[in-house]
């Protein structure tokens, strides 16, 4: 017969025995399902009008455009050169009185750049003016004598016809008249020569003024007041040959040297794209102006002139290094539609379609996509997105079209208030 002590011992829990494994597994599954339900309810609440869900975004980058369908068939390096560049000098040798230019100054055609000392030129002009005045005064004297001689010739001819004077006297009067007519013609020619000499002297005075041959920008100032300038560089090393250098910035172009083996790929009028070494992100369109019909025997190259469709841009200056891409002008049979590049993490599936969520006005807008190539960690999107739009990265399954979101760039620092 069982005693009361045995009955109490049978009611004790044996804590040393391990619990059944199936019961523990069912407990954890139940807790996981409950947690998922709670998270889903919280996310649904946030996406349906509660606190906006914080999402990471990235910008869609446009790739290509309709005008850049041509491919490069050849690349060549060269330099920016000016077709109109002149080192301006005086036509005569003289001492500089004043220089009116500085580097970087814009000048107009005919603008005065410098003046030479005009002492000698002014003296020559005064002499020519005096010679002209003397020649003109001589003309007046001869004209007065000729007037008297013509009257005498007429009177004596009439008297000789009446036999009142001898025929010899009449002929002498006529000869005197003809001689004075010849003297008058000579004096008039001398006056014309003196007038021409005065005009030449005026040109000599004007030659002491140095003017710009065309509109442009001064890139070099070569002379100072007090120095001697000469177009022939007479006088040794202390004589300047120019006042300054003027460049027409509208005539800038690129001159490249193309190897003989590749010159067959280049044609006049061929479209080009130039990138200056100083501005790597600036692509300047242009075309081939001409292929110089001469080769460099030592370097086995041919010079090619390339235009720049950026006339007057102050960023382009002579002697800049440049790289020119010669583009294939043959149109492609089917133009590729320009698209955008987005991270592959921004693309998800909804209803069997590839979609992405674009952040607009604080809401996630679903866009159906047409995908193209895979480029590393990015995907090409042919339609559905535009360059510059913000796309959601790793969109959760619970993210719905029109849900409120708070966008944060992928590389932005985390906000402590978001915890």
TrEMBL record:
Residue stretches making up the CusB-like beta-barrel domain: 254-328
Keyword tags: Coiled coil, Membrane, Transmembrane, Transmembrane helix
Residue ranges of every copy of the YknX-like C-terminal permuted SH3-like domain listed in the record: 341-406
Segments crossing the lipid bilayer: 27-47
One GO MF term: efflux transmembrane transporter activity
SUPFAM superfamilies attached to this UniProt entry: HlyD-like secretion proteins
Multidrug resistance protein MdtA-like barrel-sandwich hybrid domain boundaries: 84-230
Superkingdom of source: Bacteria
Entry's family note: Belongs to the membrane fusion protein (MFP) (TC 8.A.1) family.
Protein name: RND family efflux transporter MFP subunit
